[in-house]
Amino acid sequence: MEDTVIEKKNKNQNDVIDKIVSLSKRRGFVFQSSEIYGGLNGCWDYGPLGVELLKNIKEEWWKFMTYRENVEGQDAAILMHPRVWEASGHVENFTDPMIDCKQCKARFRLDTLAEQISDKKKEKALMELSQSLNEGSEAAEKLGKLYQQGTKDAEVISTAFDAVIEDKELSPLLLNKLNCPQCGNAGTFTSARQFNLMFKTFIGPLEDASAVVYLRPETAQGIFVNFLNVQSSSRQKLPFGIAQIGKAFRNEINTKNFLFRTREFEQMEMQFFVKPVEDKQWYDYWKKERLEWFKSLGMTPEKLRYHDHPKEKLAHYAKEATDIEYLFPFGWGEIEGIHNRTNFDLSRHQEYSGKSLKYFDEEAKEKYVPFIIETSAGASRSFMAFLVDSFYEEEVNGEIRSVLKFHPRLAPIKAAVLPLVNKDGMPELARKIDDDLRPFLKVFYDDKGAIGRRYRRQDEIGTPYCITVDTQTLEDQTVTVRERDSMQQERVKIDELLTYLLKKLNSK
Ligand code: GAP
Fold first, then answer.
1. How far is the C-alpha of 331 from the C-alpha of 364, rounded, in Å?
2. From ligand 1's centre to the CA of 33, what distance in Å?
3. Which of 123, 161, 192, 387 has its CA 20 to 30 A from that of 445?
4. pLDDT at residue 4 tops 60
5. pLDDT, tens digit, for every residue of 284-297?
6. Is the Cβ–Cβ distance between 405 and 390 less than 8 Å?
7. Pair 267, 218: CB distance under 8 Å
């Protein structure tokens, strides 16, 4: 049988992703949520090493974004007044068009169905659709404008397919000509329905419409509604930003690719409030800053790019937008969005709350609603990108070494302390070193197995330094420090070890 586009990609991608999922479980980075009950789709738990890595990513973001004069932090509640989500447009517009297969009950997002269908099958379905329409009918004329029969150019066919599937009238007719990518049956799709991605729950004891609240699908709205609270309490003047890290929830139709698209995830968002005339300059500034942040933490520059949104595809509130994309094993995927949101959000909250959110510009002696430049990164998605990017399998002395080359500041464990053998006073000395480092650094003590095996275990979880206490230590109070990537060793005095490590960890 012919491979679909997705199947072909999967053959290459599964290998690396499978290895990472398996490593994550085995070494305690990420577990399936509620695993003993069979798991909960789209939800993952962070294990002992995962929680360290995630915490380090968030800490680096927090320092980079808020340790500046013009950005303040905050932490808004997950549950917000339901009117917030009416004002933001989420109640009305935060939907995905969804179709079901009546035969196998698989559910698909209409707008991403094309990814699962080969170009040949797209062409066949378009041809069949064209032949089934009465010549001269309105539908036939419309199709004729979108699709020219006989064309063999894959890109032209794909573009035509996307346009037809988005068209309200032609879409159900095209769906009828397609086979379900899961069970292979033809003509089994339901018509498309709009599916709101917000999770609903109830506040208080009554489970009726008046008690409905939503689990926030983004942290951004908590920042917009606090704009004046933060501005006045911190006495900030424009331009300034508000940053927040927090959980977000989306009832995604198709969760996929491990942590890439999940139903519960964490965001790291910053909203920068500017004078309307200065929007372009700040948009360009943050676009550059944010890409640099990923690079500064060691992400491979060639695997990072911008994807600027074409004007006609911009969200209704955006004047300009770009995604920072990372080249995952399954292709390019967004890890952060940067938007010029204009004055849309604050204007809407003014309108829905009846409270003024205008800023008084003392210099210009005028009041106006600021424009907002948003930087919105996924902490969980960045976690996955950093994990994938640092994963290497290298041949060393005829054996494969699996290593996570995390930037030292991101590494879950900063140093391992290893007595060469469990005798001659080495364990006692190693324990003392471990005790002395522990208040300052996340360290790990390991005295089990051959030293080479212990190094490999640390390489596999990305520990940048291994400190070994050996015979020479007993004589001259020095230890060896082995660096993970080069595997080079250096002798360092025990007295100078902490300073040495702190310097190394912060120098990159
Ligand atoms: N406030 C704007 C906003 O939320 P978005 O593009 O929908 O914009 C921003 O989301 C970032 O949040 C994405 O770039 C991605 O990193 C992360 N994200 C969004 N949906 C996600 C999901 N279902 N699972 C994991 N991360 C997600």
1. 48
2. 20
3. 387
4. no
5. 999 999 999 999 99
6. yes
7. yes
The number of beta carbons lying within 10 Å of the beta carbon of residue 122 is: 23
Q: What is the pLDDT of residues 91-130, one digit of tens each?
A: 999 998 999 999 999 989 898 898 889 989 999 999 999 9
Q: Whose CA is nearest to atom 6 of ligand 1?
A: 337
Residue 139 makes CB contacts below 8 A (sequence gap 6+) with 133, 169, 170, 173
Residue ranges lining ligand 1, Cβ < 6 Å: 218, 220, 250, 252, 261-262, 265, 267, 269, 334-337, 374, 376-378, 380-381
Distance 207 CA to ligand 1 centre (A): 29
Query: What are the tokens at 341?
Result: 């949101």
- Give the strand pairing for 71-73 and 331-342: unpaired
Contacts with 304 (C-beta within 8 Å, 6 or more apart), sequence order: 291, 294, 295, 324, 325, 326, 327
| pTM as predicted | 0.89
**Separation between Cα atoms, residue 285 and residue 263, nearest integer Å:** 31
In which element (H, E) is residue 83 found? helix 82-87
> Which residue has the CA at smallest separation from atom 14 of ligand 1?
336
Q: Which atom of ligand 1 is nearest to the CA of 336?
A: 14
Q: What is the Cα–Cα distance from 299 to 386, expressed in whole angstroms? A: 7
Rounded distance between C-alpha atoms, residue 43 and residue 255, angstroms: 9
CA distance 410 to 208: 46
376, amino acid identity: S
- Which residues on adjacent β-strands are paired with residue 150? none
User: Hey, which of 265, 272, 291 would you mutate to test ligand 1's pocket, going by the most ligand atoms within 8 Å of its Cβ?
Assistant: 265
Cα(44) to centroid(ligand 1), Å: 16
* Rounded CA separation 340/180 (Å): 39
DSSP tag of 374: E
**461 CB-near residues (< 8 Å, 6+ apart):** 27, 49, 404, 412, 413
Sequence letter at residue 82 = P
Probe residue for ligand 1, chosen from 84, 376, 386 as the CB with the greatest number of ligand atoms within 8 Å: 376
Ligand 1 center–CA 325 separation, angstroms: 12
Cα distance between residue 58 and residue 390, in whole Å: 17
In eight-state DSSP terms, residue 101 is: B
C-alpha atoms less than 13 angstroms from C-alpha of 342 in its C-beta half-sphere: 10
Q: Within 10 A of 49 (CB to CB), how many other CB atoms are there?
A: 22
CB 114 within 8 A of CB 158: yes
* CB of 241 closer than 8 Å to CB of 71: yes
Q: Please report which confidence band the pLDDT of residue 507 belongs to, taking 50, 70 and 90 as the band edges.
A: confident
Q: What number of other Cβ atoms are within 10 A of residue 159's Cβ?
A: 13
